[in-house]
Amino acid sequence: MQKVFFREEQKFGSISLYISMGLIYLSVLGLLLYALIMQFLLDKQWKEKPISDDGLIILAVLIPLILIVSALLLFGSKLITEVDRHGISYSFQPFIRKPKVITKESIHSFEIRKYKPIKEYGGWGVGKTQGHGHRKGKSGIAYNVKGNIGLQLKLTDGKLILVGTQRAEALKRAMIKLMN
User: Fold this and answer.
1) C-beta neighbour count of 150 within 10 angstroms
2) Distances in Å between the alpha carbon of 48 and those of 41, 51, 178?
């Protein structure tokens, strides 16, 4: 059995995210329900150019389906990071199921740093540099789900990878142990 120096599993989710997504979902479903009531129960147009009955039925099926799938993807996503004696591995399920492994030998340098998720990487999730962040002019990719602290890796081939963390000090200790 291999000794793991560090393991972290992060999921999207905060009270503010749940509330804002809930309000968006409820607004969309409320508007859809209003359209259905106006068109089918009251036999009234709710817009100047109403959608056909068939179109509204298709929307009544598609919209909840899209909302369910987006909720499952958002709230079912998780970033798993591990550091062991061979290197660092990460996966971002369900998008990256098989862990990507960065060997100790391929790491040129690392730092735990504060970053600007929206400005540097276009937000949370998986994002490429926006060309005007901490590493201006260099191409990099980030894997993050919340917060603004991450492990910045510079690889021997020049690539930059940032992995978000909620446990910066523990990850730093594990990386020092790995690299020594």
Assistant:
1) 25
2) 18, 10, 65
Residue identified by tokens 């591995």 is 89
Predicted confidence at residue 124, as pLDDT, reads: 83
Element (H, E) at 157: none
Give the model's pLDDT for residue 17: 78
Give the number of other CB atoms < 10 A from CB of residue 174.
Answer: 22
* Selection from 62, 67, 54 nearest residue 27 by Cα: 67
14-18-24-26 Cα dihedral, nearest 10 degrees: -170
Mean per-residue pLDDT for 153-160? 94
Spans of all domains in the chain: 11-76, 79-179
Parallel, antiparallel or unpaired: strands 125-128 and 107-114: unpaired
Give pTM, 2 decimals.
0.75
SS3 content of the chain, % helix, strand, coil (to 5): 40, 35, 30
3-state SS, residue 180 = coil
